[in-house]
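Quick one:
INPUT:
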């Protein structure tokens, strides 16, 4: 039986870009679809004029709001420069939508996912999205709470790939892991103390690998939702890898296994 998928939030459809240079870059990129521009009603200057001109040439609607409202919508504090853009992210969607589609596929259809659990550095988030997209990972669960929003810092670290990355959204990482398990996907945490090897031991055909916080690793709430843990083998006295490096190893190991099973 199919799950009931609630109406999609705009936050699960658009990536909000703020700041005059990032917004103008988005408008000047023909591969991106800009839904709308919002400017502060007191915003002025040549750079704003260039944004408005680019928006007119592309037929992008422009709305005005108070400076406070722009800051709230941007969610960034002090760097919006009085303008933001909602850019369509065609592969971003709620986790429930992805699981609903997966339920329609044959039960032996494999899937490979990553989950971000408290990863706090925007640079790491961006690099994970870039690597996972390059490796053909089916989705990266970026929860709405506990992980930075996909903003200009994340976009820059991903070299723009964040706009087309297969991003899945849930309220929290723990909530997402619970949904994955309920859908029959094995959820395994990457942990240095695990006795199962990511590179050498069997993995389920449907698997989600969880990447924990840069300092503290996997959160207790997520550990409670895991089916087990796996480790990346380490040599030379190295205790762990940067989370973005670990994501690269995990992504390409999942790709390697998928290629071997074909």
């Amino acid at each position: 039986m199919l799950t009931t998928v609630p109406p999609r939030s705009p936050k699960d459809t658009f990536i909000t870009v703020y700041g005059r240079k990032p917004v103008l870059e988005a408008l000047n990129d023909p591969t991106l679809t800009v839904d709308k521009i919002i400017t502060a009603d007191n915003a002025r200057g040549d750079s704003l004029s260039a944004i408005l001109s680019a928006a007119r040439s592309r037929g992008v609607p422009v709305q005005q709001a108070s400076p406070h409202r722009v800051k709230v919508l941007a969610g960034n504090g002090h760097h919006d420069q009085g303008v933001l853009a909602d850019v369509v992210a065609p592969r971003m969607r709620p986790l429930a939508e992805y699981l609903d589609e997966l339920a329609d596929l044959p039960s032996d259809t494999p899937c490979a996912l990553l989950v971000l659990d408290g990863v706090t550095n925007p640079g790491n988030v961006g690099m994970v999205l870039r690597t996972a997209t390059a490796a053909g990972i089916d989705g990266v669960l970026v929860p709405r709470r506990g992980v930075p929003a996909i903003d200009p810092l994340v976009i820059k670290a991903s070299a723009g790939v964040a706009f087309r990355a297969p991003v899945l959204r849930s309220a929290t990482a723990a909530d997402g892991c619970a949904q994955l398990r309920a859908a029959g996907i094995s959820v395994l945490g990457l942990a240095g103390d695990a006795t199962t090897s990511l590179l050498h031991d069997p993995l389920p055909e449907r698997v989600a690998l969880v990447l924990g916080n840069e300092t503290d690793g996997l959160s207790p709430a997520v550990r409670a939702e895991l089916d087990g843990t796996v480790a990346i083998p380490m040599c030379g006295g190295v205790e762990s890898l940067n989370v973005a490096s670990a994501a690269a190893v995990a992504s390409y190991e999942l790709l390697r296994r998928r290629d071997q099973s074909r």
